[in-house]
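Structure Section — protein described below
Tokens — whole-number codes for backbone shape
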Amino acid sequence: MIFYYSGTGNSLWVAKEIGKYQDERLIDISLELQKNKEEYVYELEKKEKIGFVFPTYSWAPPQIVENFIKKVKFNGYKQNYLFSVYTCGTDSGCMSKYLDNMFKDKKMEIYYTEFIQMPENFITMFDLDSTLLRNKKLEDAQKKIVKINEQIADGHLHVFDKEKYSIRDYFKTYIIKHLFYFFFMGTTKFRADDRCNSCGLCVKVCPYKNIMMHNGKPMWSQRCTKCMACICRCPKEAIQYGRTTKNKGRYYNPLLKDENKK
């Protein structure tokens, strides 16, 4: 089984590619968490693989993913092959070690992690990649996913204790992460401009169900993970974040074909 979380489609595409190749079922983390359970229990088949696919937020897992991992439990777990593939815009800090420690706390061993560099989507802080760079990243991603699938199928191991991380990597993952969540999780800057046609897609795609329609316009509550789903998937590009997104393009993974229409 493969658990995934995705806002603008990069990690969803990765999860689908892995699920298809490995013949594993996909489970949407955001939909699972909407059940508001104290514990999420899953039955494992013999030798069934367990995978986690998600984007990197400030060189660490998104809080929504961390919260789910802390609550997840697997019946029938007998050192099943556990892996994670995460997407990022640049580098991944010391994500592998971070995940290794998370699963050790659950008395589980993660055998394999890898990252795939994908097009930039965090438009509240950064500009989108140029078309040339975006296409190059997508082309490279399609090549890398082939290698990743082959390694997972072969039960490839990743030896975390021998991997070297710099002080800068630790600073990114363990310090900047906390600053990111402290300063950049607010929703007061979100708004819908006059192009909004009240379609309600933003309400449907929000993983926290943090958006509601009021007088035909979306309104944001305080619970936000900054996944960019609402702002990037708006068909009219009507959702803005302060003044930073007004003249920027939007991004949703083009390899997903019809997914963007949902």
In short: The chain is about 35% helix and 20% strand. The longest strand covers residues 82-88. The helical segments are 10-22, 29-33, 63-71, 95-105, 131-153, 167-183, 201-205, 229-233. Residues 24 and 163 are 29 Å apart (CA to CA).
